[in-house]
Amino acid sequence: MMMNVNLKKLTFLAIILSLNFNVFAQSKNVQLPANWFNLDLLENGYFGISTEKAYRELLKDKKPKQNVVVAVIDGGVDTAHPDLKGVLWTNKKEIPGNGIDDDGNGYIDDIHGWNFIGSKKGNLEFDNLELVRLLRIYTPKYQSTTNLTPLDSSQKEEFKLYKKMVGDFGKKYEDASNTFSVLIAINKVLDTVAKISKKEIPTMDDVDRYKADDETEEQVKTIIRKGSREDGSFEKFYKSIKEGYKQYDAMLKYNLNPKYDMRAELVGDDYSNAYQKDYGNNDVKGPDAFHGTHVSGIIGADRTNSLGIMGVANHVSIMAIRVVPTGDERDKDVANGIRYAVDNGAKVINMSFGKSYKWDKKAVDSAVKYAELKGVLLVHAAGNDNQNNDLEENFPNKFFDSKEADAYKEANKKPVKPDFTPPKPMAQNNGMGMRPPYNRSTFVKPIPIDSAKFNLPHANNWIEVGASAYKDDDNLKASFSNYGKYTVDVFAPGFLINSTIPDNKYEEADGTSMASPVVAGLAALILSYYPDLKPAQVREIIMKSVSKVAHKVKYKNERGENTRVPFSEICVSGGIVNAYNALKLAETYK
Q1: Which residues span the membrane (predicted)?
Q2: Could you tell me which residues are beta bridge partners of residue 483?
């Protein structure tokens, strides 16, 4: 699933409307160069990846040895954008619009890629979270079950998962409902002010002049002022609220609605057959191409024209593969997207999406192994929940479902907690109102991590990417970015990244979704000049050549504590990717 991380700051506070801004969140009240992610820290003062320095000093007299196809598996790409038209992958074996599968690859008129979540009837725009799809299966089986119900070992595991999912669903639904209530209140004031001022979009002055009807509306005005300062302008805040309303409306209507399921009608595949591939249509833009278009621009927006931005790679072709709706992507579509990319010549695949639950990971694992066999590198966004991926599940990932993984899980199985535990009697006091003896268990203990599980079978053609900000200080880790000492390989710029969006426009966006294509673009850049490198070598080069972060960074850890740690504690490489260093290192590989 893809979500605008700006909206994560919106929360419901019991009775009084307010906004909960992360204490360590980077301020957006800043004007950054449009191309800051390609700049150099020492030369320009922004912690970019030194792309421009590399072009100027290392590649000036070199010619690329190959054009590298990068597949963008996402929610859709606007192929008509002027900064992308010249860098699109085109299937030259296919005759556009003739309704015939000219190249015999199983896909009719796949000129710039393929859409696996559509059909002749149209496109699937919305879908459930994977959590909801799983609950649809497990609820009839376990809603009346207790820990006293006789179950075999397989059923016990399913029941354990079911209880976790019920809890997660309840929290997500409550959070979404509460946040939507906040958005409704803010929208109401904004729309009322617009109507009174007779403007399509009001100004902050209009909001200030508006006489609130009650105390709640007065507090909403305070929220608007605070949000505008945090976002850098009233216009940005206004847009984020409108986008937030749209996203949370969709979350409640579709993502978290067990009764909603349009897959059969709009896609029409045999969903029970994970290896079926002959479905979909050739509409790679789809109903909402914002995210995929933004990602594509970061990778390879035309560097030879005077428009908009410059992507990381200069000799690249973007292959558009649509598998991500507004909601969670399905494993079958992800697996088919990977296979399509590999079979049609992609050397790098960017995957800026993720979810907390799996449906058919073995189908995805099989596709990842296929990509590794065929020499294709996969680059994946770590996620935007400020979550420790060493402890929390995040799919897809490089770790295979395997016999070794099953054995490890069995050996480290935690006992099932009973539904009810009687409270222990409190210790007797001395009759003078003294508190019970000090209980050390009330203090939160560090969560242990067994690093052995990260040596289980996994893909060697996979890079997991966290998001960094522009300033080399203790706020360098983007406040929203997931992290992991063992699971997140590198960090890359993912804060206020300006890139292409539909309808010939450009816009800033945040997320590991933006950091991942920075790394995918770097991988393509390396391969365009050093075509003999294998995926594992490209991965190694990117990780070994990072700009090491010498100071501590701050973030809120998995225990909810504000903390500062060395950068090597939140990712494997301990640094930010660097194009200049990577190309120099690639030159030494034979």
Answers
A1: none
A2: 388
Which CATH number is 42-127+280-398+460-588's, of 3.10.50.30, 3.40.50.11540, 3.40.50.200, 2.40.30.110? 3.40.50.200
Task: Determine how many CB atoms are found less than 10 A away from the CB of residue 109.
Answer: 19
Give long-range contacts, CB 8 A cutoff, 24+ apart: 272-275. Answer: 274/331, 274/332, 274/335, 274/360, 274/362, 274/363, 275/363
Q: Mind giving me the DSSP string for 73-120?
A: EES---TT-TTTGGGB---TTS-TTSSS-TT-SS-TT-SSEEESSEET
Quick one: tokens of 181?
């209530």
Number of H-type helices and E-type strands within the chain: 15, 15
Catalytic site includes residue 81: no
Q: Which residues pair with 320 in a beta bridge?
A: 72, 113
Query: Consecutive sets of 10 residues in the chain, 590 residues long: mean pLDDT of each?
Result: 52 38 65 96 97 97 96 98 97 96 96 98 98 97 94 94 97 96 96 96 96 94 93 92 96 98 97 95 98 98 94 98 98 98 98 98 98 98 96 96 92 64 43 38 58 94 98 96 97 98 96 98 98 98 98 90 95 98 96
Single-letter code of the amino acid located at 278: D
**Amino acid letter for position 275:** Y
Best CA proximity match to 117, nearest among 261, 367, 353, 333:
333
Active site residue 291: yes
Geometric angle at alpha carbon 21, from 296 and 75, rounded to 5°: 20
Q: What tokens were used for 170?
A: 């309840």
The residue annotated as part of the active site, out of 513, 516, 528, 573, is: 513
Of 553, 15, 543, 83, the C-alpha closest to 299 is 83
pTM: 0.91
Return the axis-axis angle of helices 512-529 and 579-586, rounded to nearest 10°. 30
Nearest to 466 by CA among 538, 545, 377, 569: 569
**Residue 94 bridge partners (DSSP):** none
> Domain limits of the chain?
42-127+280-398+460-588, 134-254
Contact of 489 with 573, CB cutoff 8 Å: yes
Structure-block tokens of residue 45: 């003062």
Using CA atoms, how far apart are residues 405 and 456, in angstroms rounded to an integer?
A: 6
> H helices within 198-270, ranges in order?
204-209, 215-231, 234-250, 263-266
For residue 357, the tally of other CB atoms under 10 A from its CB is 19
3-class SS at 506?
strand
Q: Give the CA count within 13 Å in the CB-facing half-sphere of 196.
A: 15
Given the residues 74, 283, 360, 489, the one annotated as active site: 74
Nearest Cα to Cα of residue 40 among 576, 521, 491: 576
The Cα–Cα gap between 18 and 148 comes to: 44
